[in-house]
Each structure stands twice: as structure tokens, then as C-alpha cells.
Amino acid sequence: MRRTFVLLLLGTAVLLVVTDRWLLPLTSLRAAGAAVYGAAEGAAGTVTRSFGGDGRLRELELENAALRAELLSTGARSVSAPPRGVSASRGVAAYVVGFGRGQRVTVDAGSGSGVVRDVTVLNADGLVGKVTWAGAGTASVSLITDAASSVGVRMAGSGELGVVTGLPGEGLLRLSLFDPDAPLRAGDQVETLGSAGGRPYVAGVPVGAVTTIERVPGAATRTALVRPAARLSALGLVTVIVPEPER
After folding, report:
1. Number of separate domains in the chain
2. Is 207 helix (H, G, I), strand (E, B) or coil?
């Protein structure tokens, strides 16, 4: 009986995957699943932490994460009075609850907490990635090491501009500076340049440090390898920078 049930469950799962990928996208079903998964994960986490006696610790962690994100994303300026061209924002703290295909993770905060697509995700160490999909209770985050990731950056010391792209197989980033003669050495710090309106990336968030200078004679750009500041293989508490609702 149990074997029959398992086979039926697996068959149903395969059918849904095939239907979603090749026949009819199941967007509404995926959203409903995300809501159920998020609620279940949150409930399980709450029960576990309650029995462990660290419910208050979680609250403090979330508060600290939100405050840290506010400072990183606004340069210690007031969120209620952002510079011209930068939208007001706030931090929504969340826990990574799953690792998906490729360089993607799932967090336990979604549209119900104000999370939307194309916003910055960071942790205590630096940039993690950006939100690529948001359900009611969970969201999908593409890490900066994803092969499709491209982030505008500035060198913390020299101010030189460039871009970093993901190298998923190595867990590193490739830095390309626009000036092929720009000064560059191992240990130099890289931070986000910032996008228009702060989406998908806010300015001034640590990205990583240069580890290796690449020598390519005649290249139009100066390139190097960068190790991410955030430990992307062991993510826990993160913060999503979301726009403040208009009043």
C-alpha cells in the first residue's frame, strides 16, 4: 500500500513538471505551492525554535539584520529622506530555507512582507544577489555567482568603475574594469555601484576582494578574479531591500 502511494505521488510530480515546462505554465499553482511551502516552513521553524527556547533570539536577529541592511543600503543616511533619484527603502530579514537549481536559493519572505522582483539581497558580510521571483510567503534569489549575473561595481579605493560577472563552477566573480590601465592589486575591495532607483542593486554594498589579477595583453578591459564577501555556500540570515510603499 505504501509503495503504491509513493509511486502515485512520484507520477503526479513528474506529470506536473512536464506540464509546467512543456505544455502549460502552472504559474498560479506554483504561487499556491510557494505559499503553502512558506507557511509550512515558517511554522516548522517556529515550533523548533520555541522548543529550543530561542524564539527571542530569532526576533533579535531579524531586527539586527534589518538595521544592518538599512545602514548598508543608505550609507548611514535616513531612509525617509533618500538622495535624489534613489527610492526610499527598508530591510526585510529572512532565512534561506532551500537551495534550488544552479545558483539560486529560496528565502522565507515574499510579497506578503513587501518583497518584489529585482531588489537587493545581502547579509552581514556583503552582497548575496537579487530577487528573481516572489510568491506570497517565499521568494527566489539569484546569487551573484550565477553565470547570468552582472553587477555594476566601483573599486573602494581608487573609485574605478567596472562590472562583475558570476563564475558558478568556481564560486568566484570575474571583475572587468573599464580602464585597461587602472591600478589593481590583490586585496582591493569591490563594492556595488548602485542602479537607478536602487533596483536591482543599491550602492555601497561590499561585493568582495580581488584575489588574482588576470594578464591579457591587448585586452580592452582590466580583469581579475574576486572572492565574494558573503559566504554563499553557507547562507542563513539575509536581508532583502524592498521599496517603501507610497503614501
Report:
1. 1
2. strand
Which residue from 112, 89, 68, 94 is spatially nearest to 195, judged by alpha carbons? 89
- Whether the bond into 200 is cis, omega within 30 of 0: yes
C-alpha–C-alpha distance, residues 229 and 38, integer Å: 28
Domain span including residue 244:
54-247
CATH number at residue 207: 2.40.10.340
Burial of 87 (0-12, 13-18, 19+ CB in 10 A): middle
| Torsion sign over Cα 10, 14, 15, 16 | positive
Nearest to 106 by CA among 131, 136, 76, 70: 131
- pLDDT of the residue at 191: 97
For residue 111, which phi and psi values (nearest 5 degrees)?
Answer: -60, -25
Residue 49 lies in a domain: no
Q: Is residue 124 part of a domain?
A: yes
- Which grid coordinates belong to 41? 516552513
In Å, how far from its chain's centre is CA 41? 19
CB contact at 8 A, 208 and 173: yes
123 neighbors 132 (Cβ within 8 angstroms): no
Mean pLDDT by 10 residues, the chain (247 residues): 46 45 44 46 46 57 62 43 58 93 92 96 96 97 96 96 94 95 95 94 97 86 95 95 79
